[in-house]
Write a sequence for this structure.
């Protein structure tokens, strides 16, 4: 029995590694206290949220998980699905698609496309984003999925993939429907995903105006004129939903996304969004801790040879109140009993970044490359070791 315990101790695998971030101070215990953070500004909205686009950290929110009508903020999910179709080669920007009677008859905001005409995808996207045209939006949905009803199913599938737990979509435009709803938090996550995943298409969200069929319409996001750091994202309005706005701004390398739902006027939604962004940039900071593919540690993997390098698949960011990132520490937790072979997409643990007792980032980690089995001798030795684990 003593030999068994000895072997267990000898062959035990440590599944926790401690890392000091480059941003950490060496004398955290004597660090100067950080400046106090005031309460967020009073926001006249049914619900709101403010988050960091790169880290995903929620800075502040109120009623941000309550289900509400999204109005034309729905078109963010429509755009997300269309952008995926472009990336997957199912659509091309210069591809001309037909305008159906269903699209042409769309209620509400319009791009004024003609029934039976052929319109390029890039023009329809601008009509959807800049003009909030319901006709252009439905035409894109039909091009991607064959019908708007099928496209709504696709929207819900993408929502599930993004972890949008409070959303359900029944149409591509945001026209009222009892089963069509979202949350401020979900819209914030979705907006941040568009910024991160599709920078080549995000540029259209800062476009001030768009002309189609000799009709010029202005972008309804007034913050594009008020604040040069704002470059998107989308407005929305129905009588039931009120005035809604998803906004993104980039200042000093930090990108924030704010969402306000259910305000009383266009000015109210802009003032609320500006107040949230000002608060976030004033009292919080964000920093990239690790780059995509950067080695952050190593793991012992049974039935292979040398230690395996561990990395993150995406750039790893952390957000915290100003002055606290200098106290951040990272801890790498590895899955016990890792056994080869492993693919580069196998989650082998997670990286937790904390300031004191507060977790500010928690990210999955992966092998830097596929991990094949070692030679027969290595496999035999590790098989024996595993008997005692």
């Amino acid at each position: 029995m003593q030999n068994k315990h000895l072997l267990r101790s000898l062959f035990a695998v440590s599944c926790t590694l401690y890392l000091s971030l480059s941003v950490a101070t060496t004398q955290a215990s004597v660090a100067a206290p950080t400046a106090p953070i005031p309460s967020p500004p009073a926001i006249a909205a049914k619900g709101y949220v403010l988050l960091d686009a790169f880290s995903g950290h929620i800075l502040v929110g109120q009623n941000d998980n309550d289900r509400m009508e999204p109005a034309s903020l729905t078109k963010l999910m429509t755009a997300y699905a269309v952008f995926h179709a472009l990336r997957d080669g199912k659509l091309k920007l210069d591809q001309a698609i037909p305008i159906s009677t269903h699209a042409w008859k769309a209620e509400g905001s319009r791009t004024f496309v003609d029934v039976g005409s052929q319109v390029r995808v890039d023009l329809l996207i601008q009509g959807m984003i800049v003009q909030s045209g319901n006709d252009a939006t439905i035409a894109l949905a039909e091009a991607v999925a064959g019908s708007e009803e099928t496209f709504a199913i696709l929207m819900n599938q993408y929502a599930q993939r993004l972890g949008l737990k409070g959303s359900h979509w029944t149409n591509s435009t945001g026209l009222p429907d009892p089963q069509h709803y979202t949350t401020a938090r979900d819209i914030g996550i979705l907006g941040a995903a568009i910024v991160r995943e599709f920078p080549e298409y995000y540029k259209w969200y800062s476009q001030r105006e768009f002309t189609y069929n000799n009709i010029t319409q202005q972008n309804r996001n007034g913050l594009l004129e008020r604040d040069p750091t704002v470059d998107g994202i989308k407005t929305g309005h129905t009588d039931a939903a009120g005035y809604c706005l998803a906004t993104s701004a980039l200042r000093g390398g930090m990108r924030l996304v704010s969402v306000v739902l259910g305000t009383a006027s266009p000015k109210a939604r802009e003032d609320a969004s500006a107040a949230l962004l000002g608060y976030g940039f004033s009292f919080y900071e964000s920093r990239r801790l690790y780059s995509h593919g950067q080695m952050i540690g190593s793991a012992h993997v049974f039935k292979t040879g040398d230690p395996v390098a561990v990395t993150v698949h995406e750039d790893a960011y952390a957000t915290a109140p100003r002055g606290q990132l200098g106290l951040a520490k990272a801890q790498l937790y590895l899955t016990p009993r890792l056994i080869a072979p492993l693919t580069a997409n196998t989650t082998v643990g997670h990286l937790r970044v904390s300031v004191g007792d507060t977790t500010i980032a928690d990210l999955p980690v992966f092998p830097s490359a596929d991990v094949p089995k070692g030679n027969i001798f290595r496999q035999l030795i590790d098989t024996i070791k595993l008997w005692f684990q």
